[in-house]
Amino acid sequence: MLTDHHREARRTAIVRLLRSSPVRRQQELVRLLKREGHAVTQSSISRDLRELGVMKASDGYVLPDTAELSSRTQDKFSAVASFVREVRTAGPSITVVKTTIGSAGSVAAAIDKAGWNEVAGTVSGDDTIFIATADARAQGAVLAQLRSAFGV
Question: pLDDT by residue (tens digit) across 37-55?
Answer without folding.
Answer: 988 999 999 988 888 888 8
